[in-house]
Specification:
Rossmann fold, 7-stranded mixed β-sheet, two-stranded antiparallel ribbon
Length: 336
């Protein structure tokens, strides 16, 4: 085998898919640019490129933002019989329409995964990936605002809403919006090496090694369910932040047996009553830390905590940082 053919045979193939419908253009362009730069760096240091990079979809052209921009994929997915890595961009917020309109693409994803390809979804691209069944029983992250919809549409997926990146059995997912840049750097390190990932992180000014999106989450409560009793409990928790309420007290107050109370609450919200109460309290504490000059102790008491250590531990578990760190990051004018 001559050197050219050997080189071509040893190159990997990256497919960035362009689904039909409104998608997130930045996640397509960003993935393409960073991988192209990684390829160029690899060629400079190794005298060859690692990936052949192609955009592929179902249509010859896909418009974005009411026709302001358009993407013309290199090829139709049917022309790609073998690929090593597939990147699914973020979708719009009409998930049902996006999933329904890309059924052929979903089938192609399943076929490629069975043939050995790895798949990475960006933000709400997880909905398209979940529709294939490939995420059943696997960990998955997405944008915090889409968590309830994903949980309702695909209950068999092991949702990890606070994780920035999940990596399981050749399937990668990530949190929302521009956090996809961290996923791309993660994949660069996995496929190229640490040095190339650091190089790209510096060129594109992306903070490497982020592992959660907790600090960015705005908890609004999982209300998209039909259990009126649970909705009443949620409203009570949110209106009585200063109280320290146990699950026993809540089940008694709403005249529901403790076991049944817990079962219904978890089914409706995805959290235990205690977990939900903690998230409501910490969300209120976050807003106070962002917008007021109150001390951490004052805020702690307002949301029903009397023990500084307990408050700090719960706050860090949910946000990924301490109350002081959070305040310093999001409220520069505050007095600590």
């Amino acid at each position: 085998m001559d050197k050219v053919n050997f080189y071509l045979c040893n190159m990997k193939h990256l497919t960035i898919i362009v689904p039909d419908g409104e998608n997130n253009l930045s996640s397509i362009v960003g993935a393409y640019k960073i991988f192209t730069r990684a390829n160029a760096r690899w060629k400079e240091t190794k005298r060859k490129e690692l990936f052949t990079i192609q955009l592929a979809g179902l249509s010859n052209e896909v418009e974005f933002y009411d026709g302001l921009f358009a993407v013309k994929p290199h090829s139709h997915i049917s022309a790609i019989t073998t690929t090593d890595l597939i990147i699914i961009p973020s979708l719009n917020h009409n998930y049902h329409k996006a999933v329904k309109g890309n059924k052929l693409l979903a089938d192609w994803l399943v076929e490629q995964y069975k043939n050995g390809a790895e798949i990475a979804s960006i933000c709400t691209g997880a909905f398209l990936l979940a529709s294939t069944g490939l995420l059943d029983g696997k960990s998955c992250s997405t944008h915090w605002s889409a968590v309830d919809d994903l949980r309702r549409m695909f209950p068999q997926v092991n949702l990890k809403a606070d994780r920035l990146i999940t990596d399981e059995h050749g399937i990668y997912t990530n949190g929302g919006a521009y956090s996809f840049l961290n996923l791309i750097i993660y994949l660069i390190e996995k496929y190229y090496d640490r040095q190339t990932a650091i190089f790209c992180s510096k060129v594109f000014q992306i903070e490497p090694d982020r592992n959660n999106q907790s600090a960015f989450t705005m908890f609004t409560g999982q209300k998209l369910h039909g259990d009126d009793m649970v909705k009443e409990v949620q409203a009570y928790m949110e209106s009585n932040l200063h109280e320290k309420i146990s699950a026993e007290q809540l089940s008694s107050k709403f005249a529901v047996g403790r076991r049944n109370f817990d079962r219904r609450f978890i089914k409706a919200t995805g959290n235990t009553p205690i977990e939900y109460s903690q998230r409501v309290k910490i969300e209120a504490a976050k807003k106070a830390l962002e917008n007021s000059r109150k001390t951490i102790n004052e805020i702690m008491y307002e949301v029903g905590y009397a023990d500084v250590k307990a408050f700090r531990e719960v706050f860090k578990k949910i946000t990924g940082m301490s109350p002081i760190e959070y305040k310093e990051r999001y409220n520069k004018e505050a007095v600590t």
